Automatic annotation (TrEMBL):
<keyword id="KW-0808">Transferase</keyword>
<protein>
    <recommendedName>
        <fullName>FAD:protein FMN transferase</fullName>
        <ecNumber>2.7.1.180</ecNumber>
    </recommendedName>
</protein>
<keyword id="KW-0274">FAD</keyword>
<dbReference type="InterPro" id="IPR024932">
    <property type="entry name" value="ApbE"/>
</dbReference>
<keyword id="KW-0479">Metal-binding</keyword>
<keyword id="KW-0460">Magnesium</keyword>
<keyword id="KW-0285">Flavoprotein</keyword>
<dbReference type="Pfam" id="PF02424">
    <property type="entry name" value="ApbE"/>
</dbReference>
<dbReference type="InterPro" id="IPR003374">
    <property type="entry name" value="ApbE-like_sf"/>
</dbReference>
<comment type="similarity">
    <text>Belongs to the ApbE family.</text>
</comment>
Length: 306
């Protein structure tokens, strides 16, 4: 068996796939299918694309049905469900705040930040209605949706789906910090995945996971952030305040059966914080690892629930 490692750009990051197949395997066909899979997700869900399906929904007037592709409806449905279960900690309706603080296509704007912070907010699961049978959705009030906390995980799931359609039953698939493992390596071992040390200055492993038929996602405050008066603000929004989290954990890592769920729950855990996050994880049977900052080293200490 030959080891293949392929990758490419997507969603402002890179996708990758590692797997073993016979030496005569048609890797070019598999690569094209994976590129098509992540490109389709990007076309449907990226706020950086003005013409994307998600932005059509954002631009629609409240009360009007908007026809949407099945993939987007799947992600919206999962986002609403996890938002409800998490008590609103995960909220796909934070697009206005995300954009206002400069975590979207445009630069930060004081006026838009002020508007986002003063806005009267309802959770997305109270505003957005889905009609999966008819392939449509509608808003009951104005809301701007952002799927940055779940779309990459779904993209990883689509990567693994494309791989399976080409006969690849075992491999490791990733977009940025979202990873899904299928099967095992040829030696019978699981796939090794690092949990990154929460230090913005270096890239190093804090710990290692060995995955088999499992997905993992990490959300943190140390890679995507802005500096405001010398204070680092995370890209993860506080749904209640319409602004970045003020004192989040260094990172939250979640294991799940699919990467879309792991991605969304990692964001939810960042918002909930260690105490509330661990309590909910225990209740739901989620495997979660929190890392807290150790100021002198940036290494952090871990809190785990399953």
């Amino acid at each position: 068996m030959k080891r293949y490692a392929i990758n490419g750009p997507t969603m402002g990051a890179r996708w990758s796939a590692v797997f073993h197949m016979p030496s005569d395997f048609d890797v070019s066909s598999a690569r094209r299918a994976m590129i098509d899979a992540v490109t389709e997700v990007d076309k449907q869900m990226s706020n950086w694309r003005p013409e994307c399906d998600l932005n059509r929904l954002n631009a629609a007037r409240p009360g009007g049905w908007v026809a949407l592709p099945d993939g987007l409806l799947t992600v919206l449905g999962a986002g609403l469900a996890i938002g409800h279960i998490s008590g609103g900690a995960f909220d796909i309706g934070m697009g206005d705040a995300t954009a206002a603080w400069g975590f979207g296509p445009a630069e930060a704007s004081e006026d838009r930040i002020r508007t986002a912070r003063l806005a009267k907010r309802s959770p997305a699961h109270d505003v957005l209605e889905l009609d999966r049978a008819a392939g449509r959705a509608r808003k009951h009030s104005e809301m701007c949706f952002d799927l940055n906390g779940i779309a990459k995980g779904y993209g990883v799931d689509q990567l693994s789906k494309a791989a399976r359609q080409h006969g690849i039953e075992a491999g490791l698939f990733a977009i940025d910090g979202e990873v899904r493992a299928l099967g095992t390596q040829p030696n019978g071992r699981g796939w090794s995945v690092a949990v990154e040390m929460p230090n913005p200055e270096v890239r190093a492993a804090h710990s290692m996971l060995e995955l088999q038929d499992c997905a993992v996602a990490t959300s943190g405050d140390y890679r995507h952030w802005i500096d405001v008066a010398g204070y680092r603000l995370s890209h993860t929004m506080d749904p209640q305040l319409g602004m970045p989290l003020r004192d989040p954990p260094a990172s939250a890592t979640v294991l799940a059966c699919d990467c879309m769920s792991a991605d969304a729950w990692a964001t939810a855990m960042m918002v909930l914080g260690e105490a509330c996050g661990l309590a909910l994880a225990e209740k739901l049977g989620l495997s979660v690892l929190f890392l807290k900052h150790d100021q002198p080293t940036g290494i952090g200490c871990g809190l785990f629930a399953r």
